[in-house]
């Protein structure tokens, strides 16, 4: 299909979805019986089940088990065209998505589901020593770091260096940080002890560092308390109330305390994609677009922003966290709106925080 084919004007409404994550995929699925043509644009050729990235990072799963080719996902959907491309901007006056190769695609309705990336709170230099976890490449990098740390500890006779190799610091106690800390503890204390001869992997120290007062800060207190108790039983040390002030190659600084540590994993903050800049739209501190209750961009009824790219509050004015169940509900909501009369803007149709919590609990039990 040529650019001319993609931009031809026909009888069918053209919906362009940018991002093949949970929100974008669910939006397209919800448009299955609509009389529209759909173009999905993503800079990677696969859909990634991000909630299980931590298991790839800790050797439990292979990368192929959580990634599915986008073209395969929609191979039976003749109404969907998949493009491997990088979006460089949006010309909303002309209703065009601008691509990095200097081409563009016209849309009638645009859905931006472009997700988020790591944020190091003004310290991008920390990324070299504290990789984050958003992509398959990140997961394989962290896997290599974790396994290499045990191997290095096995080789050294220096007790201090051995302790540093066997100290793992996870920064940020959101869902990703909690999952990573828990699974590293499982790996160290239950899976690896029989595989090493010169070290006792049970002595590994797993730190979960959170600047705030509790783990899972966006979740209800009952769930936060439960997670903290479960992590403690696994042997995870939870450090609350002090921010990380530096990430070095051989140590992490928490407040004024320097902790020798060879493996640091960043799960503390995210920065939304540049969608707000593309649209010249209002956004919050993390770069998420401030959308209306129906998930459209103010002054642009034809543009929706969903998932981690959107700043959304529920009916009780609680911020909806950036997790898969929320993105899927937003995608389904937008798919239902794309080609029929819109409800009035004062109808809050997105999920509540409790809906997200319930969905997350169901997903956890089923897995």
Automatic annotation (TrEMBL):
EC number: 1.6.5.9
Reaction(s) this enzyme catalyzes, per UniProt: a quinone + NADH + H(+) = a quinol + NAD(+)
A Pfam family recorded for this sequence: Pyr_redox_2
GO molecular function, one term: oxidoreductase activity
Domain FAD/NAD(P)-binding per the UniProt entry, residue ranges: 14-331
Sorted UniProt keywords: FAD, Flavoprotein, NAD, Oxidoreductase
Record's keyword annotation contains tRNA processing: no
InterPro entries noted in UniProt: FAD/NAD-bd_sf, FAD/NAD-binding_dom, NDH-2
Domain of life (superkingdom): Bacteria
The family this protein is said to belong to: Belongs to the NADH dehydrogenase family.
PANTHER family per record: EXTERNAL NADH-UBIQUINONE OXIDOREDUCTASE 1, MITOCHONDRIAL-RELATED, NADH DEHYDROGENASE
Protein name according to UniProt: NADH:ubiquinone reductase (non-electrogenic)
Organism: Sedimentitalea todarodis
């Amino acid at each position: 299909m040529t650019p001319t084919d993609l931009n031809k004007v026909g009888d069918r409404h053209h919906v362009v979805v940018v991002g093949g994550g949970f929100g974008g995929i669910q939006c397209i699925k919800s448009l299955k019986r609509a009389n529209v043509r759909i173009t999905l644009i993503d800079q990677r050729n696969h859909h990634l089940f991000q909630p299980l990235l931590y298991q790839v990072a800790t050797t439990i799963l292979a990368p192929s088990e959580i990634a599915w080719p986008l073209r395969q996902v929609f191979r039976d959907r003749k109404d969907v065209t998949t493009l491997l491309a990088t979006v460089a901007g949006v010309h909303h006056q002309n209703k065009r998505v601008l691509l990095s190769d200097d081409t563009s695609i016209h849309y009638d309705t645009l859905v931006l589901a472009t997700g988020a990336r790591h944020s190091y709170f003004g310290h991008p230099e920390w990324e070299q020593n504290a990789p984050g976890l958003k992509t398959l490449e990140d997961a394989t990098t962290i896997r290599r770091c974790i396994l290499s740390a045990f191997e290095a500890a096995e080789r050294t006779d220096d007790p201090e260096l051995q302790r540093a190799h066997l100290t793992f610091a996870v920064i940020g106690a959101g869902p990703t940080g909690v999952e990573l800390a828990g699974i590293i503890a499982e790996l160290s204390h239950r899976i690896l002890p029989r595989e090493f001869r010169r070290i006792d992997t049970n002595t590994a120290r797993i730190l979960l560092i959170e600047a705030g007062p509790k783990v899972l800060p966006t979740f209800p207190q009952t769930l936060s308390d439960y997670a903290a108790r479960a992590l403690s039983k696994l042997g995870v040390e939870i450090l609350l109330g002090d921010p990380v002030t530096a990430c070095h190659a051989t140590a992490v600084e928490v407040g004024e305390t320097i902790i020798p540590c060879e493996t640091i994993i960043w799960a503390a903050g995210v920065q939304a994609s540049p969608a707000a800049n593309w649209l010249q739209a209002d956004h919050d501190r993390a770069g998420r677009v401030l959308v209306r209750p129906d998930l459209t961009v103010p002054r642009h009824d034809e543009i929706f922003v969903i998932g981690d790219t959107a700043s959304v509050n529920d009916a009780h004015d609680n911020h909806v966290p950036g997790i898969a169940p929320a993105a899927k509900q937003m995608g389904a909501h937008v798919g239902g709106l794309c080609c029929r009369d819109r409800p009035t803007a004062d109808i809050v149709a997105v999920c509540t925080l409790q809906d997200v919590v319930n969905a997350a609990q169901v997903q956890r039990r089923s897995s």
